């Protein structure tokens, strides 16, 4: 599939572009600035320009599936949490409906399905992620929601715990998140499902076989 | 009707409590702190305790209609915009469904139906208000959405412009907003409709007759 990666320049996004290739897909990295092109071009990809806060319709040309991995990051205010994490996602979902996208995978966060139970310092963020996930569920698009635990920059191990619900806030390397998303993209058992995802004992390719 | 006023201690909320009485309703002011009780008790009302960020189910006892006039105010961050203006409203809508509330009126903001067109400084706020309004529209509740222009503390004139859409950002006294909401509450022509509201030339009671 030709897969638009929204937020490709992020830490997880870059891994996703790499892993999609490993899994036989053609990633189309969407970035905000041509300065971000060389990183992807050097790997043989053809990035497209698109700004979540403006117009990014042209990025959908000839796209089969969308992975939403954008986030405003830890150094911006809650205003950007609304504009990027929540509204950027909702806009991407709406435009995906318009363009007839076959599959939409969203990178959410552990606890985004239970925002009211999270600490006050992150509660607004969890509610914003929750709204985006809920919008996707009700969009009519074929979706998969992946809610990873606390992200680390460690190398991937290829082994995870992928379940409907994992208690607490365990960790997981960004590389393993990216591989799991790339794996789930074309798995029929992941259609219209939501998962928590943390490091574990099961090989990624075997997570749906039990 | 017995009308739960969420955000009763706010500037518009206090006017709403007064105007509801003028229009023959029984206001039930919901406030966060018993310190806020005397203001309402002195006027013969019976306030109830409820915190939008926690539990406020007990406030719904014997309530017919809900007016949502809460807002995090201009001195808090965008995190509170998410938690109060957006999520507080969504929670109030959901609890109103649960309790079989007959009518839900939300105090929105002019331009909340076109957030993408607003200045960057207020865009996140407009999107949060927009999400709350959209949630109400799709809730199945009988609703009225009122989007006032820039609020002033001037005395009410009793004359407004109430239309589906008013361009720009005109002003309106909070007292006139409160009276318009109180008037619309039991008007069948306002059911499941949304209005912009600014100062104008038409008497409030005649706004739906043209």
From TrEMBL, chains A, B:
Domain of life where this protein originates: Bacteria
Domain NAD(P)-binding: 7-185
Name used for this protein in its record: SDR family oxidoreductase
Organism: Halobacillus naozhouensis
């Amino acid at each position: 599939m030709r897969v638009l990666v929204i937020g490709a320049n992020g830490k997880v996004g870059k891994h996703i572009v790499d892993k999609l290739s490993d899994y036989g897909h053609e990633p189309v990295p969407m970035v905000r600035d041509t300065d971000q092109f060389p990183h992807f071009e050097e790997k043989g990809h053809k990035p497209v320009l698109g700004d979540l806060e403006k117009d990014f319709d042209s990025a959908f040309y000839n796209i089969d599936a969308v992975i939403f991995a954008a986030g405003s990051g830890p150094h911006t205010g809650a205003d950007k949490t609304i504009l990027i994490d929540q509204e950027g996602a909702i806009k991407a979902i709406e435009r995906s409906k318009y363009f007839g996208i076959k599959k939409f995978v969203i990178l959410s966060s552990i606890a985004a399905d239970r925002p009211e139970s999270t600490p006050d310092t992150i509660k607004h963020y969890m509610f914003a992620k929750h709204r985006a996930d809920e919008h996707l569920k009700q969009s009519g698009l074929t979706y998969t929601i992946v809610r990873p635990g606390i992200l680390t920059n460690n190398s991937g191990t290829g082994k995870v715990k992928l379940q409907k619900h994992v208690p607490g806030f365990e960790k997981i390397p960004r590389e393993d998140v990216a591989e799991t998303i790339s794996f789930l993209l074309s798995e029929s058992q992941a259609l219209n499902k939501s998962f928590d995802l943390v490091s574990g004992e099961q090989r990624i390719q075997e997570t749906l076989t039990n």
